[in-house]
Amino acid sequence: MKNILITGASGFIGSFLVEEGLKQGFQVYAGIRKSSSRGYLKDDRIQFLEFDFSTREKILVTLEDCRKNNIRFQYIIHNAGLTKAQKKEDFYNVNCRNTVHFIEALIQAEMVPEKFVFVSSLAAYGPGNPFTGEPVRLADEPKPIELYGKSKLDAERYITALRDFPWLIIRPTGVYGPKEKDYFVFFQTINRGMEPYIGFKKQILTFIYVRDLVRVIYLALASSHVNKAWFASDGKEYPSELFAQITKKALGKKTVKFTVPLFLVKTIATIGEHVAGLWGSTPTLNTDKYNVLKSTNWRCEVEPLEKDLGFKAEYDLEKGVAETLEWYKREKWL
Ligand SMILES: NC(=O)c1ccc[n+]([C@@H]2O[C@H](COP(=O)([O-])OP(=O)(O)OC[C@H]3O[C@@H](n4cnc5c(N)ncnc54)[C@H](OP(=O)(O)O)[C@@H]3O)[C@@H](O)[C@H]2O)c1
């Protein structure tokens, strides 16, 4: 039986990665923090490993314990990451610095796996050109537009410069599905009869359903590829009104449409950031978030992923949203 370590196992994507690992017959090690919830990790075949990624030495303590117990990982999925942060520096610390510590510790402990997948993000490359509408391509120069994306890119730059390290990088676009908390706010808003838009320009969004993303990651592990990166989306593109239409249809709701002009969003973001900054924190709507919200082209190329891994999404937005909303309703989130 092969061993797989999944970091960030307690979160939305991590818990699906754990479920799939068990289904595929791996011995799954869920990498979590002392403070992490185990609410989505109930299967008693799961082995837990507590990691503190803040220093290489602390990671080495956990790895040494593994060695003493003859545990070696054939595969590692480094999925732990921060998508929202209280303090700006947290993005760099968690997404880049912790990744560096983790890899340095694996190398020092001579526990480099056969494959190491880093879960990055389309945000590391930023949006596509708004004028040509061309998708972001693997050959493009990365142009992240916010600190989250920059921190993922910094981690990627460290990883891709490594010699003799079997990395793979997956850059998902927006991931949605059961347990997810950010798109959930949009579903909740539609459910309450409101249909908000930001800015008057048409936005093209891309998505991947969590179960499809998990398939991508396991296909990458099982493939003969190393030292390669791919963008991951369901291969379709969705104008923002279509996202709303699909959601309304699935919820059977009528809504009132309204548009918040960009200048107003920017003003709120700038003032909010200034005020919260006095207390050393960052509000949810900040200038970084504004940069993301105003971007109109989130297309990314998926042909290399389809060609290299034989991936074809099983879920389009309609099917994925229906399954997601069913879960939210069953769990009484909606
Ligand atoms: N959701 C998306 O749309 C999307 C898109 C592209 C890429 N990604 C990437 O996918 C990965 C998983 O994201 P998600 O959406 O599943 O987010 P999530 O639900 O917030 O899960 C994040 C996971 O990372 C762990 N984590 C956060 N800070 C940590 C730290 N300092 N040390 C150790 N573990 C830490 C969390 O542990 P706790 O439970 O203890 O907090 C949690 O298990 C992230 O790397 C994210 O950047 C997500």
Helix content: 40-55%
Query: What is the tally of beta strands?
Result: 13
In this entry the ligands are: NADP nicotinamide-adenine-dinucleotide phosphate
Main sheet?
7 strands, parallel
Main-sheet strand order equals 3-2-1-4-5-6-11
What separation lies between the terminal Cα atoms? 40 Å
Question: Quick check: average pLDDT?
Answer: 96
Question: What is the overall number of helices?
Answer: 11
Which runs of at least 5 residues are low in confidence (pLDDT < 50)?
none
Shape: globular
Order of helices and strands: EHEEHEHEHEEHEEEHEEHEHHHH
CATH architecture of one domain: 3-Layer(aba) Sandwich
Strand content: 15-25%
The top-level CATH class of one domain is Alpha Beta
Judged by helices, strands and strand pairing, the structural class is alpha/beta
Radius of gyration: 20 Å
- Assign the CATH superfamily of one domain: NAD(P)-binding Rossmann-like Domain
CATH topology of one domain: Rossmann fold
Please describe what this structure looks like.
This protein has a 7-stranded parallel β-sheet with strand order 3-2-1-4-5-6-11, with helices on both faces. The chain is globular. The chain has a domain at 3-177 and 207-234 and 299-314: Rossmann fold (3-Layer(aba) Sandwich). The model has no long low-confidence stretch (mean pLDDT 96). It has 11 helices and 13 strands. The chain has 334 residues and is an alpha/beta fold. It starts with a strand and ends with a helix. 42% of the residues lie in helices and 16% in strands. The longest helix has 21 residues, at 88-108. The chain has helices at 12-23, 56-68, 88-108, 147-160, 182-191, 210-222, 240-251, 262-277, 287-294, 303-309, 317-330; strands at residues 3-7, 27-32, 47-50, 75-78, 115-119, 167-172, 174-176, 194-198, 204-205, 207-209, 228-232, 238-239, 256-260. Bound molecules: NADP nicotinamide-adenine-dinucleotide phosphate. NADP nicotinamide-adenine-dinucleotide phosphate binds next to helix 1, helix 3 and strand 7. The site of NADP nicotinamide-adenine-dinucleotide phosphate has 23 residues, from helix 1, helix 3 and strand 7.
